[in-house]
Specification:
DnaJ molecular chaperone y domain; alpha+beta; single chain; three-stranded antiparallel β-sheet; flat
């Protein structure tokens, strides 16, 4: 199945991101093809600004240089490690509640005019 540029555009519009690669891990799409709507779960994310503010760093990025001490053994920065922790906690604590509300019909629905078409 080939994904063309038109389908990528549709995905970025639906998920409200600038580029497809900017999608936050843990996003869940619940699709209803028959009634043509979808619902989206987005976990709480840790932005770099929030991280540096909590660390007392400069928001302009002057104090966020990555020294060798800031990079963990597997190559992740402290920010990336904390972001993964925040995302994981968010998925574990918020997703079950969202799924329950989804089954009850209480989550926001986005109307879909047309589903993307895939070609072989």
């Amino acid at each position: 199945m080939a994904v063309d540029a038109e389908n990528m555009t549709w995905c970025t519009e639906v998920m409200d991101v600038d580029r497809f690669g900017e999608i936050t891990p843990g996003i869940v799409l619940a699709l209803n093809g028959h009634k043509k709507y979808l619902s989206i779960f987005k976990p709480t994310d840790l932005t770099q600004n929030a991280f540096f503010k909590s660390q007392g760093g400069d928001l302009m990025g002057f104090d966020d240089s990555e020294s060798e001490a800031d990079v963990i053994e597997d190559g992740q920065t402290e920010y990336e490690r904390k972001r993964q922790k925040v995302l994981g906690l968010s998925v574990r604590t918020q997703l079950a509640n969202w799924l329950e509300r989804l089954c009850d019909g209480l989550v926001e629905r986005k109307r879909v005019v047309e589903w993307p078409r895939f070609t072989d």
